[in-house]
Amino acid sequence: MVAAGNAIDKHEQYKRVFAHFDEDGDGKISGSELRRCFVRLVEAGEEEERVKDLKEAFKMYAAGAGDGGGVLITPRSLKRMLSRLGMRRSATECGVMIAEFDLDGDGALDFDEFKVMMS
């Protein structure tokens, strides 16, 4: 019985995948439908790579934030990183930069706020 249930589950999965490719619902997957699907897959892969790169950048800016909780970009950690990049900014200036994208008003940027800032 278990084997029959697995076969039905697999069949349903195949039907859902086929329906996803068959955008116009004509029961066939045209060349243009297939191309669009591969484009979406490539775009999804590119987005994953972008998020990975953003996470690495975020870690660099948030390093040594010293907030005691989760990893955040604080005015102090932003000032330190900008200084390493040769850009001298005061802690006040860094606080103003952060405030522009600080959606929750905690005075620091979490990763989601950083993503918004970088988009």
UniProtKB/TrEMBL annotation:
<keyword id="KW-0106">Calcium</keyword>
<dbReference type="InterPro" id="IPR011992">
    <property type="entry name" value="EF-hand-dom_pair"/>
</dbReference>
<dbReference type="InterPro" id="IPR002048">
    <property type="entry name" value="EF_hand_dom"/>
</dbReference>
<dbReference type="Pfam" id="PF13833">
    <property type="entry name" value="EF-hand_8"/>
</dbReference>
<dbReference type="GO" id="GO:0005509">
    <property type="term" value="F:calcium ion binding"/>
</dbReference>
<feature type="domain" description="EF-hand">
    <location>
        <begin position="9"/>
        <end position="44"/>
    </location>
</feature>
<dbReference type="Pfam" id="PF00036">
    <property type="entry name" value="EF-hand_1"/>
</dbReference>
<dbReference type="InterPro" id="IPR018247">
    <property type="entry name" value="EF_Hand_1_Ca_BS"/>
</dbReference>
<keyword id="KW-0677">Repeat</keyword>
<keyword id="KW-0479">Metal-binding</keyword>
<dbReference type="InterPro" id="IPR039647">
    <property type="entry name" value="EF_hand_pair_protein_CML-like"/>
</dbReference>
<protein>
    <recommendedName>
        <fullName>EF-hand domain-containing protein</fullName>
    </recommendedName>
</protein>
<feature type="domain" description="EF-hand">
    <location>
        <begin position="89"/>
        <end position="119"/>
    </location>
</feature>
